[in-house]
Structure formats: C-alpha cells, structure tokens
Design goal:
Elements: H1 5-15, E1 22-28, H2 32-45, E2 49-55, H3 57-65, E3 72-74, H4 79-86, E4 96-101, E5 103-107, H5 119-122, E6 128-131, H6 137-148, E7 159-162, H7 165-173, E8 179-183, H8 184-189, E9 197-200, E10 209-215, H9 220-229, H10 232-240
Parallel strand pairs: 1-2, 1-3, 6-7, 6-8
Antiparallel strand pairs: 3-10, 4-10, 5-8, 5-9
C-alpha cells in the first residue's frame, strides 16, 4: 500500500501560518511622516511589524555601506539606490521609484514669501534655511533653485544648513530662520499648508527629485511590504501628501 506520509507532511506545511517578522526600514527624512501612515496601514493587514529609521539620504546610505542592519531603504533620490545596485548591495531588480518630490519656499509668516519667489532675489531676510546639498537631495534642489535666480553666491552669509530636510523644516517652524526651502509634503503632513506663506518652485528649476527604494534583505516580509507600498491604496496616501507617483 502506498504511504500517505508525504501528503500529510505537505498538508501540514501548507496549513502553517507565515511567521511574523520585524523589518527595519530606513527612510529619508522628508518621507518619514508619510511612511508612518503607510506602516500603520500595512500593520493593520499584516502580522509583520516595521521599525522606521529616519535620516538624511546621504547618512543612511553611508550607514548601509558600513553594515547597518536595514532591510529596506527609501531614499530621497535615485543616485544612492542606483549606487547600491551597482555595488550589488540590494536584492536584484528591487529598485523602483516610489515618489517624486516637490520643493517649496515656506515661511510661517503670511507676509514673507510672495507668490513668485522674488524674495530670494530681494534678499530681504536674515536667514534662509536649506538642507545640506551634499547630503540631502532637497538641499541640492534648493541650491539649484537659488542658482537659477542668480544669487547663490550673494546668499552664502544668510544660508543656514540643516543636516536633513526635517532639521531644515524645524529651523523655519521654530523661527530660527525666517524662511526656507522644504518639501511640499512637510507642510501637507503638518497641516500648515494654509498657514504662513509659500512659493511652489517650478520643477523646471531643479533636477527631478525622483525618490527610489531598494530591498536590502531578501525575506518574504520585506517583499510583502514592497508590494504593499506599490498598491493603489498606498499610492493614494503618497499623492495626498503632495508627491507625484509614476
């Protein structure tokens, strides 16, 4: 008589639930508030849990190269994810664009920023905050916008640099800088978009802020989270915070 043992063993494995995992997701500062919402939605439908680590794209990239135990990296640019792919630090074919950012010049004071951004050329302020262009893609975009206005060199004594875009936002919100270039998503997330004054810089003035993600660990939990971020529900959350989605 033919043994049924293999069948029962297979049935046992099929019926076993997937083991819940905890994954570490490194996220660029500008996307941190949105990622918190995405994680909350994800954990409602999954047994897996996500730990968020936020920081500047440049610093997170350096930490990954130095062996930081991140399972996924959501950068604020495409450069670092591509470099990680070239160095074979990622799960093959996992790199994708999850959001396209927009930059605004913002002040909590309603009388500071005009609708054409001419205050940049007028230089009628004491301090202007931007993220460090060497570390943060939004800082690089801010520099490009200022250069397009022809006053980058003239503004050096007035510019204060945040380590990342989150730090830059706090510079402005706290009043340590009268105005600053931040991510549109930040004033959307903080619900201050209708407070103060802002100028949405035309995207023709800076290189596209194409934000890409890469999978660093090849586990079912990380793959599952990546699939979730690309669902229509997740993409709608991303759009609601002022990003474009491809």
């Amino acid at each position: 008589m033919r043994s049924k043992t293999p069948f029962f063993i297979a049935l046992l494995f099929i019926s076993l639930p997937l083991q819940a995992e905890r994954i570490n997701v490194a996220v660029a500062s500008n996307f941190s508030p949105i990622m918190k919402q995405l994680i909350a939605l994800y954990e409602q439908q999954s047994e897996h849990q996500v730990t968020l680590i936020s920081g500047s794209t440049g610093k997170l990239y350096a930490q990954i190269l130095n062996g930081a135990p991140f399972d996924a990296f959501f950068a604020a640019d495409s450069l670092r994810p591509q470099k990680l792919e070239n160095k074979k630090h990622i799960v093959p074919a996992s790199r994708f664009t999850y959001a396209i950012g927009k930059i605004v010049l913002w002040s909590p004071d309603a009388s500071v920023v005009d609708k054409q951004g001419q205050i940049i050329q007028a230089m009628a302020f004491q301090h202007l905050a931007i993220a460090n262009p060497k570390l943060a893609p939004y800082g690089r975009a801010a520099q490009q916008v200022i250069e397009s206005k022809g006053v980058w060199k003239q503004l050096q004594s007035k510019i204060v640099r945040g380590e990342n875009i989150g730090h830059t936002y706090h510079f402005v919100k706290s009043g340590n800088a009268a105005l600053g270039f931040i991510a549109l998503s930040q004033i959307k997330a903080d619900k201050t978009i209708n407070q103060g004054s802002y100028w949405l810089a035309p995207d023709t003035l800076y290189d596209p802020i194409e934000q890409q993600a890469v999978q660093l660990s090849n586990t079912m939990a990380v793959s599952d989270f990546f699939r979730f971020v690309q669902t229509q529900a997740a993409e709608q959350v991303i759009r609601d915070f002022g990003y474009d989605v491809r």
